[in-house]
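To illustrate the input format used throughout this study, we show a single complete record. The first block contains the structure-token representation of the backbone; no residue identities are included at this stage. The design step must infer an amino acid for every position from geometry alone.
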């Protein structure tokens, strides 16, 4: 058997991480996060505070953020038999098109994850407060096709009774605090529908955003509705065999114009988070350049990929063997990233969604 080249071998993206450094809560996070700065050209590492980002970014930079908002997408209800049932909505709310019956009841098909004892099977109905769910078909990776029935605004039902679907490595139930702290300060109500936060953006405060604007650093927005696939590990030993879950992304005309101007003027485009990076690089891949974009993307950024839009990246520290650590390794170099992560572990940086941040420049 031909050996897998190192850059495509999943084992190459592993590192040792003490469980104590996996952040479990958002305590003292905004305004107090640490920042590790990696210089791609030299490999130099600098330990900073996240508030230093204002001075660290080039004054002529264009900062691009993901303005999506996390939906409390996890509902807890019951089966016809009375047994407990759980549902996690995966279809972005903006893509759910309901039909309204003469009795005012709205119905729509969507995708989600189901959890219940003995099933649930196609044809079963699950009951939540104000929402009924009919299982239509079971799909891959635990997904199910379902039909929802409700009255009023669907978002209101989730906002009233739903739970924030925290990542599986946060080993506790969600709290009321998570509803606020698991959102970026620039998230928009009309972009509600993600099942996970674009976590690199959680470090920004209104004060940091104001300081960036005062320094002349411009900001533009994209939307990527973060799906549950962001938590899915890469299981293929040869990462070239991995298939990404598709997510829905949008680049508005105004943002596309700002990016085109920055590129034409030689100004760096700084992506906040891997979701923003996927959106911008997907735009370039689909259009062959820069322009307004709206559609599904399953882009997998891995060694051999040449970045078309993103010049610098602000990101969190990612799971070993994940598509995200592979992405940042593609930007900065695998050896540099593993060295940086080893340094971060030794220096006590906090990892994953509620952890600290990294600037790759």
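Output of the design step:
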């Amino acid at each position: 058997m031909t050996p897998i080249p190192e850059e495509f071998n999943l084992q190459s993206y592993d590192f040792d991480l003490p469980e104590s450094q996996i952040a479990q809560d958002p305590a003292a996070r905004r305004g107090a996060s640490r920042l590790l700065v990696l210089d791609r050209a030299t490999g130099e590492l600098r330990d900073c505070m996240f508030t230093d980002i204002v001075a660290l970014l080039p004054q002529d930079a264009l900062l691009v953020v993901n303005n999506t908002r996390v939906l409390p997408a996890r509902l807890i209800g019951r089966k016809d038999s009375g047994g407990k049932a759980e549902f996690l909505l995966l279809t972005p709310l903006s893509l759910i098109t309901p039909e309204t019956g003469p009795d005012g009841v709205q119905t729509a098909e969507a995708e989600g994850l189901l959890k219940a004892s003995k099933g649930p099977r196609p044809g079963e109905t699950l009951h939540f407060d104000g929402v009924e769910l009919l299982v239509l078909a079971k799909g891959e990776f635990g997904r199910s096709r379902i039909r929802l029935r409700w009255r009023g605004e669907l978002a209101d039902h989730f906002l009233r009774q739903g739970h924030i679907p925290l990542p599986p490595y946060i080993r506790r139930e969600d709290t009321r605090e998570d509803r606020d702290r698991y959102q970026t300060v620039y998230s928009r109500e009309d972009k509600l529908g993600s099942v996970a936060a674009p976590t690199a953006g959680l470090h920004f405060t209104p004060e940091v955003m104001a300081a960036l604007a005062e320094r002349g650093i411009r900001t533009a927005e994209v939307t990527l509705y973060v799906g549950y696939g962001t938590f899915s590990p890469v299981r293929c030993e040869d990462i070239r065999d991995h298939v990404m879950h598709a997510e829905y992304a949008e680049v508005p005309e105004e943002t596309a114009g700002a990016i085109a101007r920055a590129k034409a003027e030689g100004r760096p485009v700084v992506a906040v988070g891997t979701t923003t990076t996927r959106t911008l690089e997907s735009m370039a891949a689909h259009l062959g350049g820069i322009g307004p974009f709206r559609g599904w993307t399953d882009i997998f950024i891995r060694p051999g990929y040449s970045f078309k839009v993103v010049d610098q990246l602000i990101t969190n520290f990612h799971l070993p063997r994940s598509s995200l650590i592979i992405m940042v390794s593609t930007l900065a170099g695998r050896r540099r990233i593993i060295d940086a992560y080893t340094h971060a572990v030794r220096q006590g940086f906090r990892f994953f969604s509620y952890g600290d941040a990294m600037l790759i420049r």
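Structural context for interpreting the output: The chain has a mean pLDDT of 94. The CA atoms of residues 66 and 276 lie 6 Å apart.
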